[in-house]
Amino acid sequence: MFVISFFSASVLGYTSELWALTYWGPALYFCLLNFILRYFLKGFTYEVATRAALLGSVFATGLYFATFDNSFHIFGLYAMAISMFHFSEFFTVALTNPQTLTVDSFILNHSSQYWIAAVTSWLEAGVEYYFFPSMKSYFWLSHIGVVMCIVGELFRKVAMFTAKTNFNHHVQTVKKPDHRLVTNGVYSLCRHPSYVGWFYWSIGTQIILLNPVCVVIYTLVSWMFFNERIFAEEMFLISFFGKQYLEYQKRVSTGLPFIKGVVMDGVS
Fold first, then answer.
1. What are the angstrom distances between the C-alpha of 201 and each of 1, 18, 262?
2. One Pfam family for this entry, by name (predicted)?
3. Handedness of CA 132, 135, 137, 142 (dihedral sign)
4. Where are the domains of the chain?
5. Over the stretch 129-163, which tens digit does the pLDDT of each residue have?
6. 267 phi and psi angles, rounded to 5 deg
7. Which of 71, 192, 75, 82 is nearest to 132 (CA)?
8. CATH of domain 41-250
9. Count of CB atoms situated within 10 Å of the CB of 122
């Protein structure tokens, strides 16, 4: 519905009525869709449906703006990248580890720091677009960011499909009976492929927006976050799997630059 509404004018031609359809139509459709969902769905199913509908509308809006030949092009690419990431997180968990599936699997409420970082990137993009519009015209560089997001996204999702029930959005502090150490597939290339994918995806989003300041900030903050998280996670993994994990550490790196994880007795 959103795609048809946005692109109707380009197919049918521009009139005052179609202008209203193009720009007000999506808002009306979203209100109508929310009313239908609210009437027919309850509880968990409704919460999932509204979040999916919101992400779908963001993606459709991004797809529309991505057709522009001005600076709105990069904002459209960014909207598509971020909405697809959050939707694919939920969808992948639903396919690989459904017993852990909750509305939090969209990771839309990942943390306050996550949204502070997102809003900061929007502010930088808006300020630079207003004062230095030419900064947002290097589409070739923005497209490199798109490639980084796609590769990072795929790498993370392959890791989730490989780990299946052994993957969780939260660091596990208690070993479950069916928890096993995954060392095959992308886990034979690096110990934390899902973090590697997310790390480069986050930097890619800022390259899409052509945000020089946030590229640096996102790189540093993401590195510090994953450095701390990997250390905490590996402490538990060593307690879960002991020598098996230590031997795995000898063979495979974390995958992230200058992050070694837990170092014990000279073994990283």
1. 29, 37, 24
2. ICMT
3. negative
4. 41-250
5. 999 999 999 999 999 999 999 999 999 999 999 99
6. -105, 130
7. 71
8. 1.20.120
9. 14
